[in-house]
Amino acid sequence: MSANIIIDWGNTLVKLARFEQGELIEHLQLTAPRYDEISTWMGHPSECKVLICSVSSNSNEVEKQLQREALFFLKLTHQTPVPLEVCYHTPETLGYDRLANAVAARRLREPGHHALTIDAGTCLKFDFVHAEKGYVGGAISPGLRMRYRALHEQTDALPLLAEAQRVALFGQSTHESMHSGVVNGMLAEIREIIRQYRAEFPECSVFLTGGDASFFEEELKNHIFAHPFLTRIGLNDILEFNQNR
After folding, report:
1. Alpha carbon of residue 114 to chain centroid
2. For residue 17, which of 71, 142, 169, 232 is within the disulfide window of CB 3.0 to 4.6 Å?
3. Distance of alpha carbon 54 from alpha carbon 75, whole angstroms
4. Can you tell me whether residue 128 is helix, strand or coil?
5. 3-75 against 91-234: fold identical
6. Rounded CA separation 53/63 (Å)
7. Which is nearest to 240 in space by CA: 136, 100, 133?
8. Domain ranges, ordered by start, for the chain
9. d(Cα 14, Cα 232) in Å, to the nearest integer?
10. 127 an active-site residue?
11. Does position 11 have pLDDT exceeding 90, yes or no?
């Protein structure tokens, strides 16, 4: 049985995922892997269908090898066909993670609903899929660690806090006040954006993903679907769509 392999090649980490019959079977993260490491993990590249998306030239050699050896190979670009209409003025600048999240949400949403994805990673990203119009855009703001760095780098007195912490609404020390401002402030932003979307689009499925999603999942659980692998699911949907064209 052939497997679908997703390779999400970032500047720091390379995220791998294996799908079989539409189900996520295995995933892992590597740092600057060589082709032999990836091919060993894949098992038999000649039996695998592969999608790679990359923001780093370090992936070039692996891409060349996979083009030769994989059963099917696809490099994701802004020109790659996707299974939804993209109504975005600058598709060449649209991050593949935002696009993949929208693709996954379109399939996973409740029937007939609009969909909003919230990706709490390096940046906090909101992306909206209209039930009839498809992907129409969203918003980007600073993520947790970016907010902590801004407090430190843009002031003379505030320290750089190493780890985010959930604290009370009112901090009783400078550290606690910073944690409250960053974490509670970001939570308030997410809640308000959800409220605004649902005020305009009452039937709207909301999905939360990203490395910092766990910080907010408990507080938002009555309003959202938490999906840690939403991006990889969307990338697999794009791979499946292109295999069948």
Report:
1. 18
2. 232
3. 8
4. strand
5. yes
6. 10
7. 100
8. 3-75, 91-234
9. 12
10. no
11. no
pLDDT at 10: 87
Q: Taking Cα atoms as reference points, which of 148, 123, 154 lies closest to residue 138?
A: 123
Helix and strand totals (H; E) in the chain: 8, 10
* Residues, the chain: 245
Segment (H or E) for 25: strand 23-30
Taking the domain 91-234, which CATH number applies? 3.30.420.40
- Tokens 């974490």 found at: 183
Structure confidence by residue, pLDDT tens digits, 128-140: 999 999 999 999 9
Strand-pair partners of 124: 120, 141
List, for residues 181-239, the tens digit of each pLDDT value. Answer: 999 999 999 999 999 999 999 999 999 999 999 989 988 987 789 999 999 999 999 99
Distances (CA, A) of 20 to 29, 41, 69, 88, 139: 19, 15, 19, 32, 33
CB atoms within 10 A of CB 10: 16
Nearest to 90 by CA among 24, 135, 154, 132: 135
Q: What is the mean pLDDT of residues 22-51?
A: 94
Token pair, residue 100, equals 């993949």
How would CATH label the architecture of 3-75? Answer: 2-Layer Sandwich (3.30)
Amino acid at 123: C
Among 8, 36, 97, 127, the one annotated catalytic: 97
Where does residue 69 rank: exposed (0-12), middle (13-18), buried (19+ CB within 10 A)? middle
